[in-house]
Amino acid sequence: MHQLELPALHSNDPLGFLAALGVLELADTALHQTVCLSWRGLAAPAVLQTEQPLTLDQLVALLVTFLPAEPAKEPLPAAPGILGLSRHTGPGAPNDALRMPIEQALQLLRDFATAERLDNDPRARWFAALVNQLCVTHAKNAKDQPQQAVTAETSPVRSHGPIWYTESTPLFAASGQMTLANNWVKAAEQCRRDVTHVHAALTGWIRVPDYTGANLDHRSTGDAAMSGDGKPSQRGVPGATWLALHAFAAFRLTGDTMNSATTAWETSGDLPALIWPVWTSPLSRSGIRALLEHPIVRTGDLARAAEFLINLGVAGICSATRTKLSNSYGPFEPGQVLWP
């Protein structure tokens, strides 16, 4: 295996960690071979392992092939047709098209799963990672739809009564009118306009004024004291953000109808947090998913579990908590090392 270091993607940074997983997702697809990922250590860069030698310029050229030609029409060419779905317009419907009626979601998943069996179509995996059918909510403030809790007696799959809508991935925190699709569009448009953003994502981040960064990076939100004109501003990193959005395919969505969850997502504290391991031996996509889902990674007593973590090849455990805005969650806080 040949190693390629990605110097700007650090293991203790939530955006860097997710962007590295996004690189792995796209590189594995582009090269039609098993590509692996590891880290130099805590607070250290990612390392990509490939069967053939690969330079940073060659990797960037591969990644750029996944940039959509027309982001507003198709933001996700790796799994076309998912982010371009039309929003349901019923009374009280969510503003995000990925939060759709459960019957529609189940039918789409059946169609995608059939296409996967017949033609190795990737959309079933992507759809299941972006649309959570295991947690549903009723239409909001719909006058003709009574408000009631989901229970075993009130199945979300019914032809009459309230419309139940799926949730999307909690890795994305929507604020205001933000949706996952329009954040994907904005990141792709920035990178399409200037492809050097993709190279910079791997080598040295370029911050763009007035770009929000999809709420994945606390540094994208600048307060008034830090700006030259005394006004708060957004300074996101479009290249790293675009790659990080592709990492969502690595996280399995789960739920118990009333509460949503996903791989590496912790909700027991005051604010939800992403908790992830740092490993130093090369792992494939399936190996990384298995490690992310391992219960030892989320144990309450990491010091006691140190021997088990070391045996798993884990060099450290990191966490990043969501910030809280007035009416929604905001960007991730800076990453913290939970262990060792």
How does this structure look, described?
This protein is of the alpha+beta class and 340 residues long. It has helices at 14-31, 56-64, 102-119, 123-130, 180-193, 196-203, 238-246, 285-292, 306-311, and strands at 2-10, 36-39, 45-50, 131-138, 164-168, 208-209, 221-222, 233-236, 253-255, 260-262, 265-266, 273-279, 314-324, 329-332, 336-339. Strands 11, 12, 13, 14 and 15 form a five-stranded antiparallel beta sheet that branches. The chain has a three-stranded antiparallel beta sheet with strand order 1-3-2. The chain has a three-stranded antiparallel beta sheet with strand order 6-8-7, with no helix packed on it. A hairpin with a 5-residue loop joins strand 2 (36-39) and strand 3. Helix 5 (180-193) crosses helix 7 (238-246) and helix 6 packs across helix 7 (238-246). The longest helix has 18 residues, at 14-31. The chain is globular. The model is unreliable at 141-159 (pLDDT under 50).
Instruction: Report the count of strand segments.
Output: 15
**Helicity, as a percent range:** 25-40%
Gap between N and C termini: 29 Å
The oligomeric state of the chains shown is: single chain
Low-confidence stretches: 141-159
Share in β-strands: 15-25%
| SSE string | EHEEHHHEEHHEEEHEEEEHHEEE
Structural class: alpha+beta
Count of separate DSSP helical elements: 9
Mean pLDDT across the residues is 90
Radius of gyration: 20 Å
Shape verdict: globular
